[in-house]
Amino acid sequence: MARYKRETLEGKTVKELRRLVVDLGIPGFTKKPKDTIVDAIFAKYGVGAATAKISKVAAASGPITQVSFEGESILTKPSAPFGSKTTTTLRVSCGASSGKFPVTGKSVREVGDFLREVLNVDRLSTGLVNGKEVPADYVLKSGDNLEFLKPAGKKG
Amino acid sequence: MLEKGRVVTNMHISVIGLGGVGSILVERLGRFINFSSDLNPTILLVDGDTYENKNYERQEFSQIGNKAEIKAMELSMKFPQLKLDSFEAYVNETNLTDAIRTGDVVFLCVDNHKTRNIVNTYCKQLTDITLISGGNEFEDGNVQVYIRQGSKDLTPDLASYHPEIANPDDQLPEELSCEQLSQSEPQLYFANLGVATLMCWAFYNSVVKQQYERSEIYFDIRTMTADAKIRILKQSD
Fold first, then answer.
1. Which residues of A touch B158 (CB under 8 A)?
2. What residues of chain A lie within 8 A of the CB of B119, using their CB?
3. I want to staple B21 with a disulfide (CB 3.0 to 4.6 A). Which of A156, B5, B118, B234 is the partner?
């Protein structure tokens, strides 16, 4: 899969960028301003400083390699046969923070490690799947909704 | 939802803790109740703390003195329809029965989990209770709603999903030294305001509209987000 440096994207014309979002299967950006399109492409296919932190976490926690900060479903294989074009994402939350992530088939422990910095997940946090407490080795299925419990605020 | 034209006259509300959250909350709650045609409760304000000039940054008082006494006086002047009373003490295991009775609506606005634990444990023994508890860290916080009717829990209690409340590692205000009391962690006024606002929402939903499917809500000022959670009763609840 192609990866783009921010400078490379910024060097392209608006017309070229609009064509690129279509080719990459990123919907909803063909009429957006240049900066917005660059941000959208860079968030999903960028290389450099912004992705370094995520790559580091992913490497430490196994095979999860991509994350959608916007929490949207990702069209990962636009040329694939019908039914195989998208990657299924699950809603994962911790406190007020949430997002949709491609974590089907991963254990709660793996997801907690992977999203620790993104969602500010406490190391000792319990996982709830569809509202019920699950062990850390529970493997997430399609349709699951994972919440990492965040401690209650103490002050007032 | 309350029936139209039906005035609830025997409701009793306790507001425990009148610091950064409680002092903001009672002003909003007082205004709402003062102009409500359905609600005519007695409101008991509970706090053993004294308002001092150092509290001015985050707390809404017009003069120095016991917070419960001063705030009851201020509210009675501002909202003459309110029936107010004050209880000038920190709640503990021995005086809880003076502050909370079965059937009450309790706003728990304290700054420590040990008090939350004591109040929660006591409320679990009552036949009917609506307990709305809020707390914050510097830029985020949460509000929980515990409802019990006819000796049955309708929502999980405060400690059910929160081990830090079930097993608190802090102390009651009366157990702290003067030095410890004066060394409180910095707080953001907007975080207090966020908690107070969400507690008002929780009151409106659970008491006025009688809806309590989502019994916990978190907010985070940094990410400009709030998320309400559905909490399932556990087998042990």
1. 152
2. none
3. A156
